Design the sequence.
């Protein structure tokens, strides 16, 4: 057997403690150990013996930097796969809890009451129409009840398509005696 195997040190110890890299390294080392187990089992099944020291060193020599990076990448993929599966379960649980608590029902009722943006458009159009109608009534009232006002003159000129001439009123000065 080989005396020293630096793979644990490379994958785990050389990473920063309490970091994501440490977790990835630990999982990558576990994957390495599974590969090593499979290698030993293959030898036992095919040759009826354990590998000798030279054969074990050949196995360890295959774990160079690119192969170790492959273990890390595989470990990261497994971590992300687990995290995604966990989060999907959590989302489903949150949805169920929301439905059970009535939040979803409340949101659904809100959406029914405010279903369409067109309701807002129609309300705005109706408000604009009502404002225009009231303004026209006020202008008509001023024109009828005060026919000499500037507004009345303006309305009559506008309706009759006449040129509008409005003279500013100049206050008359009193003659001192």
Sequence:
């Amino acid at each position: 057997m080989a005396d020293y195997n630096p793979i644990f040190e490379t994958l785990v110890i050389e990473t920063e403690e309490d970091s994501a890299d440490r977790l990835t390294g630990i999982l990558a080392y576990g994957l390495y150990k599974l590969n090593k187990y499979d290698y030993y089992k293959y030898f036992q099944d095919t040759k009826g013996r354990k590998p000798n020291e030279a054969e074990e060193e050949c196995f360890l020599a295959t774990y160079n930097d690119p192969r170790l990076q492959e273990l890390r990448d595989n470990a990261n993929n497994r971590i992300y796969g687990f995290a995604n599966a966990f989060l999907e379960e959590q989302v489903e649980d949150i949805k169920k809890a929301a439905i059970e608590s009535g939040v979803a029902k409340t949101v659904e009722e809100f959406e029914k009451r405010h279903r369409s943006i067109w309701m807002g458009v129609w309300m705005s159009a109706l408000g604009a129409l009502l404002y225009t109608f009231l303004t026209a009534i006020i202008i008509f009232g001023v024109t009828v009840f005060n026919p000499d006002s500037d507004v009345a003159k303006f309305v009559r000129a506008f309706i009759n398509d006449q040129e509008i001439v409005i003279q500013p009123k100049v206050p008359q000065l009193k003659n001192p005696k």
Q: What stands out?
A: The mean pLDDT is 82. The CA atoms of residues 102 and 108 lie 10 Å apart.
